[in-house]
Amino acid sequence: MIAGRFITMEGGEGVGKTTNITYIQSLLKEQNIQVLLTREPGGTALAESIRQLLLDKEQEAIAEQTELLMMFAARAQHIKHVIQPALEQGIWVLCDRFTDATYAYQGGGRNIALSTIQWLENFVQADLRPDLTLLLDAPIQLGMQRAQQRGKLDRFESEKMAFFAKVREAYLSIAEQQPQRVKIIDATQSLACVQNQIKQTLAPFMYE
Ligand code: TMP
Question: Treating both helix axes as pointing N-terminal to C-terminal, what angle do 64-78 and 45-55 enclose, rounded to 10 degrees?
Fold first, then answer.
């Protein structure tokens, strides 16, 4: 059995990940590719509970080390119970955020050493890495405007602009270092234009 592909979607707040990941799902289904849509933090009952704790801003302050470990605790559950079994069955996995988000938010945003994140990445994931990552990129002001229009801000969305600037910078630096895997999509364009960029990026990958 051919293993499924592992595709992740990344980006700052309010860049349109949810709309566009649903679009990718429909593109894959059109090609009769079996696909599983999931997200991080989350994707299993326990990991979704960890997500709620991470996003809730009404509780005690979460230490940055705790935050990092909770991300990887959720990820370990998600990989073992959802991602790995699907890939082994030949199902493609489409994941809304993965470890690049940890490098961007906990590494870039919270200044945690990359070597610490790398160690946890190797420990939790062994050799599992995304085959393709789409990075939806937009200036932070634009994304935050969209996030604010969605309603009440969660614990991450309530961070200061300087935090989001570091997150964006970290994402762009990953894309620069790994251009084969990480493709930047300009999310400032109209939805039709963004989806056209996504379709073109996926085309060689789908028919390979
Ligand atoms: P979402 O609302 O975009 O689905 O993601 C939830 C929040 O979690 C988002 O603000 C980014 C943050 N996050 C991290 O800080 N580190 C991570 O590793 C992941 C997966 C998400």
Answer: 160
Lowest mean pLDDT, pick from 94-98, 110-114, 165-169, 204-208:
204-208
Distances (CA, A) of 67 to 74, 79, 97, 165: 11, 18, 16, 19
- Rounded Cα distance between 114 and 180, Å, is 20
**Strand 182-186 and strand 132-137: pairing?**
parallel
Closest-CA residue, ligand 1 atom 6, reads 41
Out of 8, 38, 95, 97, mutate this one to test ligand 1's pocket (max ligand atoms within 8 Å of CB): namely 97
pLDDT in tens, 44-99: 999 999 999 999 998 899 999 999 999 999 999 999 999 999 999 999 999 999 99
**pTM confidence score:** 0.96
- Dist CA 208 CA 198 (whole Å): 16
- Give the C-alpha separation, 79 to 45, whole Å: 13
Mutate to test the pocket of ligand 1, among 37, 52, 105, 106 (most ligand atoms within 8 A of CB): 105
Reading the block at residue 45, the tokens are: 């009952």
